[in-house]
Amino acid sequence: MGDNRIAVVVADDDPAVREALADLIDSHPDLELVGLAINHEQAVRAAVDHRPQVVIMDVHMPRGDAPGSVRAIRDQVPEARVVALSAHGERETVLNMLAVGASGYLVKGTPAEEILEAIIRAARDQFSMSAELLADCAEPLRRAERASWRFEDLVGNRLEDSYLELLGHAPCGVLVVGPRGRIEYANAHVRQMFGYGSAELRDKRLRDLVPERYRTASEQLIGRVFTTPSAMSGRRRDGSEFPAQFSGGHLQGRQPRGVVFIADLSQLRAAESRFRQLIESSPDAMLIVDTGGRIQAANHRTEALFGYDRDHLIGRAVEALLPDQPLTVSLREWDDSLEEPVGHSMELVGRRSDAKQFPADVSISPLRTEEGLLTVLTIRDITEVQRAQFVLERSLELLEVTDRDRQALLSHLVHAQEAERGRIAADIHDDTIQVITAASLRLQQLRRRLRDPDEQRVMDKLDETLKLSLSRLRQLIFDLRPSSLEHGCLAGALRGLLEQIRTETGVTYRLEDRLTAHPPAETMALIYRTAQEALVNVRKHAHAKTVHVQLLGLDDGCLVRIVDDGEGYNPLEVESRPGHLGLSLIQERAQIAGGWCRIESEPGSGTTVEFWVPLGTPPDAP
Description:
By secondary structure, the chain is α/β, with parallel strands linked by helices. The protein contains 21 helices and 21 strands. The strands form four sheets. A six-stranded parallel β-sheet has the order 2-1-3-4-5-6, sandwiched between helices. Strands 8-7-11-10-9 form a five-stranded antiparallel β-sheet. A five-stranded antiparallel β-sheet has the order 13-12-16-15-14. It starts with 5 loop residues before the first strand and ends in an 8-residue tail after the last strand.
C-alpha cells in the first residue's frame, strides 16, 4: 500500500453495487481498495483486519445493524471513519447514524465524484451529507432554537413577579421571607388570619407569629426546597392562638427567598362533624379502619348489612366482615407512605353474622388525619348486580362473536395488504435500485473516458434519466411503506404524503393532529390508506390550491376530515361512471372497519371527505 494513498473498505450486500464501488475506488489515484464485505459482521472484521482510513458502508445489510457496526468499528479501529450509503433517506435513520459517529451519509444515486469526495473528506476527518438530507435533518434544530429563544424572552426577567402574583391568589396564607429571615410579602389570607396590616407584618419574623413553644420549628421551615406540612399553632395580634398547618418551600427568583404556606384549622371540628353526618347518611355500609386493620367507626347501614351492632364492631379486625382476602395487604401499603395514596375498588366476599356470604364491591379511600392515616371502606352488596350482569353478558355473546369475526377479517385483510406492499418495496430496494445504482456508477466511469462533447452530452442525459428513475423508485418505496407509519406515527406518514403532493402539484396543505389515542397498527394502516385514496383524488382531479386535513378523536374512534378548494363535482354522476373506484374504496374501507364515510361536493365548491373508524384493538390476524 502506498504511503500517501487512502485505504478504503467497501461493504454492500448487492454484488453489482459492491463491484461498481470497488472499480470506482481503484480508478482514483489517491485511493486504494483494501477489503470488501457483504454484511455488517464482515464489515467490522474487514475494518479490524485491514485497519483502513475509511469504510463506505450500506446501511441495510444482513447479520447486524448499521449503528452497531459503526460503534464496533469506532471502538476497535479509532482511526477509521465510516461513510453511510443507502437507498433510504429517512430523518430517523440519518440521525441515528450520525449519533453513533458516522462521518457522512449519502443516498444511492449520488454522483460518483461526490462519493469520491466524501471518502477523501472523511479521511481528513471532515463531514459529508447529501444536500436534501442536510436540509431535512436541520429543520427540527431550527424550530427548537426558535422555540428556546421565544421562551427565554418571555419568562426571563418577569419570572419572579409572576410567582408573587400567583401566590397572591393562593387559597391559603402565604408569606415570603427574605434572605435575613424578615417577612417581605404577606397575602390577604395571612393578614386576615393574624389580624395585622401589610405594613405591620413587614420586617417581622415567622417566629413572631407563633407561640414560644413553636419558634424553633418555625425557623426550620424557611429556605427549604420542600417541607411536609407541620401542625402548630398561630398567634394572632391580640395574643389568641388558633390551630394551623405550616409548610415551607423555596421561591425561585433573582435572590434566594423562602415561602411559607399557612392553613387555618379552626374549622376542622366543624368539618369533622359534617363528615360524621355524611357517613351516617350514606346508603352504603361505611367503615373507618386504621392501618392495623382495626375498625374505628361504622355507620348504621353497616349494622343492617352485616347484622352486627356497631359497638360490637369497634376495635375488631376488619377480617371479621371480609374474611380470607387481600384487604389488609392493601391497607398496609399506605402506611408511612411518602406519596399521597390514591383510592381504588375491589370485589370481595362479605360475611354476615349468620355466616352467610355475599359478593361485595368495596371502595377503599385514604383519609389523612392528625392521628395518622386512616382508611374509609364503602361496602355494597352486589348480588343483584352480578345476576343482572350475567344475563347481560349472555345476551351480548352473539354480538361479540359477530364483532370479533368482522375485526378478524379486517385485521387479516389489512395485514395481507401491508405485507404485500412491504414485500414489493423490499424487492424494489434489494433488486431494482441496486441494479440502477450500479449502472449509474458504471455510466459515470465511462463518461470520464469520453472526450467527444456530443458523446458526453448523451451520457449526461442518460445519467439524468437514471437519477430520475432512482428518485421515482424511492418515492414508490415511500408510497408502499411510509417509514413514519412503520414507526407508529400516523400524522407523520400523512405529512409526508401531503409534502409529496405539494412538491408535485404546488397544492399547499394544512394538517391538524388532534388525535390523542394511539390506534392499533392495523387500524392505523387502514386510516392511512383510506386518506391516501382521497388525497390521490385531490391530486388527480380536484385542481385545488389548498387542502386541509384533520385527525380528530370522536366517540372512541378517529374522524378524518379532508377538505379541498378544488373544482368539485356531482357525486351521483361521477360514482355511476365506470372506472371511478376511488370513492367506493374509501367507503368500503371505512364500513368494513365498523365505521362510516361521508362525501360532500358540488361543482365549483370544492370537496369534503369525512370518514370515521373505531379505535378498538382488533384481534390478531389469522
